[in-house]
Fold these 2 entries.
Entry 1:
Amino acid sequence: MELNQGKRYRIGVVAASLLTLTLAGCSDSSSDADDAAGGQASSTPQATTQEPAQATAERPSDAGGATQGGDGSQITLDALTASDIDEANLSGELGCQFSTERASPLLVAMGNVDSSSAAQGVVKVAGYVERVSAPGGFDGMTDNPTFEGKGKTLSIEVTGEPSEGGESPARPATLTYDRADGAQRTLEGEWQCGP
């Protein structure tokens, strides 16, 4: 009789284990991936865990239009740091910069007044600082300049009047970045020129 009770106990344990395995196989497969990766199942829904990844993937210049055309890769402009600008060693009497609400500045250029020399500038593309230039010195970049650099053209179009007064007011503008492979991206922001 004791042997039969022991067999029943073992059969019950095996049945309970099989039931647990069956139920685990029917559950959300994302918990299996979590178990394999970290040893514990996540109790948060999958959608919640994806939201932070999307937010952290966004770069400062990602506000604005998406990249159109080209090889399908994104045009990503990063904000220039003070160190980036200092290391560029731009020369000129006066300068201009393009900024968005999320990134300031994205393009910085310097030039001399009444000069036939090109204005020199920098832009940070996917983490790399690259040089660009526009004809006509400072005067050539105050209204709707076009900057060119290796494999890229950046056009600034002033779209309105300044919202504030002063010697160097910022004006609403768009920056259109054209890449050599035919890709294009337009960002809304402000163009500001002066001392």
Entry 2:
Amino acid sequence: MNPKAISLEEKKLRPVVDHLNDLLANYHVHYQKLRGCHWNVRGSHFFTLHAKFEELYNNAITTIDELAERILTLGKSPLSRYQDYLETAEIKEIDTIGMSDVDLVKAVVEDLEVLIALQRDLLEITDEANDEGSNDMVNAFMQFNEKQNWMLRAFLNKQ
């Protein structure tokens, strides 16, 4: 698609697309980490966390698709190789096998903090580009992550 078809300037969209791809890469690593947390959680909080991690990875995969489709809407291509995700993402892989339930939650909280920071930066960039569509989408993602961060921090008894 041509950005002009949706009344946006291509020159202003380059930073938007670059940052959307950065967010996409981070979500892919986060998604796989959540799958590992879901599969490998053990302990007295198994039932609660198993369901929570599933909720979070289902949300992440939907977010991944929306990010990729938004990048395409803006006339560019989304990253699509795991190598690119791993090289681009601030969020890093972890081995969830054998981790305690609390440490799994801590790892997810750390990811959420990275995602929220990336989303806040992206909101400024989309605002500068007058890209209200991307701005609204990213704002909704951020609000979800802020709420999840609060709930998981409450689980950890952290303020």
